[in-house]
Specification:
Blueprint: E1 4-8, E2 14-15, E3 23-27, E4 31-37, E5 46-51, E6 54-60, E7 74-80, E8 92-96, E9 99-105
Amino acid sequence: MLDDVSAASPDGAARAAPMRRGWNAREDADALRLRVDMPGLGKEHVKVWAEQNSLVIKGEGEKESEQEGADAPRYSGRLELAGDVYRMDQIKAEMKNGVLRVVVPKVKEEERKDVFEVNVD
């Protein structure tokens, strides 16, 4: 079970540490890109949504056997993101071969309302 995989950094962007095993985050000028290993799950088992500046990922598979103590694979994580840095309404996710890939686009710096350039005299 995974919980809070990250927190916002002082500049408002996502901070990739501490990442959980099976989670990989990479941030570039355009987006935050997540790769989450979810073996045993297909896209019908995974839900991804954004709420109150958080990206939430949950997945629950089906029990493979009736053996006692054999649980279905379950994954859960929440990533706190700064709503003024990321385009929360444009998140894209793809599930293929047990790997979830999520792209959270960034707001271009010139479009951000919380960034002000100061003229130096």
